[in-house]
Amino acid sequence: MAEENVVFVGKKPTMNYVLAVVTQFNNNADSVIIKARGKAISKAVDVAEIVRNRFVPTAQYKDIRIGTETLQSERGETNVSSIEIVMHKA
Q1: In what order do the strands lie in the sheet with 6-8?
Q2: Cα angle at 11 between 38 and 28, to 5 degrees?
Q3: 0.85 exceeded by pTM
Q4: pLDDT in tens, 29-40
């Protein structure tokens, strides 16, 4: 899978990420990965559900990976939860 089929979810409004995923599917991408860390995880789940229920009804969850990433900050190492949602258009 090409790296351009990845959508990183952050602080922007939810619909911005929904548009990015739908655009990937409209550009003939077979699957799209939605990635998020920390507080953005719930927004990533919202993005996946909105895409599946409203815009691309043929989209299905292919894989959901959860994990922990270690980040370096001024205060030392911090563990941050992460999620990757792989959506596939049937």
Answers
A1: 6-8, 31-37, 76-89, 59-73
A2: 95
A3: yes
A4: 999 999 999 999
Domain boundaries, the chain: 3-89
Q: Does domain 3-89 have CATH number 3.30.110.20?
A: yes
Residue 72 exposed, middle or buried by CB count within 10 Å (0-12, 13-18, 19+): exposed
Spatial contact of 62 and 86, defined as CB atoms under 8 Å apart: yes
Structural tokens at position 85: 């949602």
Residue 1 half-sphere exposure toward CB, CA atoms < 13 A: 15
Distance in angstroms (rounded) separating the CA atoms of residues 34 and 44: 7
Instruction: Spell out the residues 6+ positions from residue 56 whose beta carbon is closer than 8 angstroms to its own.
Output: 21, 22, 25, 89
